[in-house]
Amino acid sequence: MTTGLEALRDLILDDAALSQALDAIADPEAFAARAAEAARAAGLPVEADEVRAAVRTASIPPAERAIAPPGWLPAEVSDLDGRTVVGWRWFGPRRLTAPFYADDLMEAGYRPLNRLARLQTPLPGPAERSARPPDGLVFHMSRCGSTLAAQMLAAAPANVVISEAPPIDAVLRLAIEDDAKVAALRAMVAALGQARAGETRLFVKLDCWHVRDLPLFRRAFPDTPWVFVYREPVEVLVSHLRRRGVQMIPELVPSARLGLATPATPDADYCAQVLAALCEAAARHYPAGGGRLVNHADLPEALFTAILPGFGVALSDDETTAMRAAGARDAKAPGQDYVPDGEAKRREAADDLRAISERRVGDAYRRLEALRADQP
After folding, report:
1. Whose CB among 140, 176, 179, 265 lies 3.0–4.6 Å from 229's, allowing a Cys bridge?
2. Other beta carbons less than 10 A from residue 29's beta carbon
3. What domains can be seen in the chain, in order of their start residue?
4. How far apart are CA 322 and CA 31, in angstroms?
5. Runs of H (alpha helix) within the chain
6. Cα separation of 204 and 164, whole Å?
7. pLDDT tens readout for residues 60-86
8. Which tens digit of pLDDT belongs to each residue from 245-269?
9. Which of 369, 357, 365, 330 lies closest to 141 in space, CA to CA?
């Protein structure tokens, strides 16, 4: 039997204007009052204190639908009684501007609307919506300027930029055949890439380990151009030894997913092996076509001279100005100016780290550099 709060949840899901109006209210008290008012107008027996308690505890079970309404974006992929389901959050026309999609999801998850009105669908659901393929895919080595490129792209209002979305990674981790995975990948990107505020372009920046899945992405989006951004390996190693990325922690990104043996200790040598696996994958798949190689040293200007031309994108003057302004800021801390740190990282690297970098990553890095030098 549907409760009053569940009926209110369904009312919100079916009414985009109401969803947008409620999402504009961040204060829980004001939200509860407005939601109860909407419920009463629809003849639902719901009081503000009930809404307030439901928001505080996120206790209303998610609605199960075949497909999410427009304005809802995928938040997570999970197993429910042997079924793969997608959980969603309301974004409406709100643009994705955080350095990573997970940051946007976190902010959305705290909003009262998303704590009251939750939604889940079967995995194939997003495939029902119409969508075109991305205008460009960004693969990368990690800690190499790919976030800077993504933040510059996101500075143009015409662009939807999906940056390292956990739901995409969840699809790639599914134990299903490649044909099914390709279909699921297209569906997930279609759902994430909705034009919710009149956007006309879509760019997807992947997690660094997804370069090993590049052939799968090419099957899913055969006409979409891609880039691989990389950097002098010792500089990347220094960054990870300061603060390790998840790909350097086998419990978070299994070593087998990187084609590596699980280490007894994920030390600096293991970190270098991870970087080598990523660079080797990019070099191995590059000859199949469709991509460009970009060295961090050429950023941010390479966005205009290599990346966007490779994606077939021509910018307006206003877009160029906005992107250049974004390129002057720190990509992961947009409130701060960007300060080049390559020289400082090279100075920080001890001789033993330099030796590890050369032994593990040197050949792959030089191969990328040779391939890049031969690019048209």
Report:
1. 140
2. 13
3. 4-122 (no CATH), 136-158+200-373 (3.40.50)
4. 34
5. 4-14, 16-23, 28-41, 48-57, 101-110, 112-116, 146-154, 166-173, 178-192, 214-220, 233-242, 268-285, 302, 308-311, 317-327, 342-348, 351-373
6. 8
7. 999 999 999 999 999 999 988 888 999
8. 999 999 999 999 999 999 999 999 9
9. 365
